[in-house]
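A common beginner's mistake is to predict each chain separately and then try to dock the pieces by hand. The better habit, illustrated here, is to supply every component at once so that their relative placement is modeled jointly.
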Amino acid sequence: DVKVTQSSRYLVKRTGEKVFLECVQDMDHENMFWYRQDPGLGLRLIYFSYDVKMKEKGDIPEGYSVSREKKERFSLILESASTNQTSMYLCASSLRQGGNQPQHFGDGTRLSIL
Amino acid sequence: GEDVEQSLFLSVREGDSSVINCTYTDSSSTYLYWYKQEPGAGLQLLTYIFSNMDMKQDQRLTVLLNKKDKHLSLRIADTQTGDSAIYFCAESRGRRGADGLTFGKGTHLIIQP
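With all components supplied together, the output reads:
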């Protein structure tokens, strides 16, 4: 089974802090994704990556950056956390072969910015 | 643009069938997905359907796709209390599919005893 592991289930940080959310997958997937989930807004794509050192902006990249130094790890960075970034963050990964494969999700990190 | 619509709530009696509906707008989507999210958890892939199919069955789950109307449905037969969750419909973004998925806002399935 595919395993996508997010480093923290719950995280509390302060406004202005630099925050790192880590995600690791163990199935050698090329594609990795970061979403945020908010009540009434569903899931929105923040950033994604096709391969090591590659990144693409999703729908709401403002205030975030990402790092993909190794194939199995995709980090989401909040450069200067703000209260409107309080949310549930979900990481996902998928294969790229055939151009389309289902995404597999981690359990999420519930981030609170005070 | 891409948009996926689904109703926010569905209430059914235990033992009945549940039908969750979804409409999407991107006709180039090659795959459509159903995910399940239980409280406090991430999204679990339930099933998916390729766009050249009109039906897919997997045990208690039946997916129907009407490509002309861009309508997707998920039927859960013999609904049980463990089926209580949020169900998300999603379509692939772009032909490569590696651009992520566009999700609906999710349907809360409520099971009445």
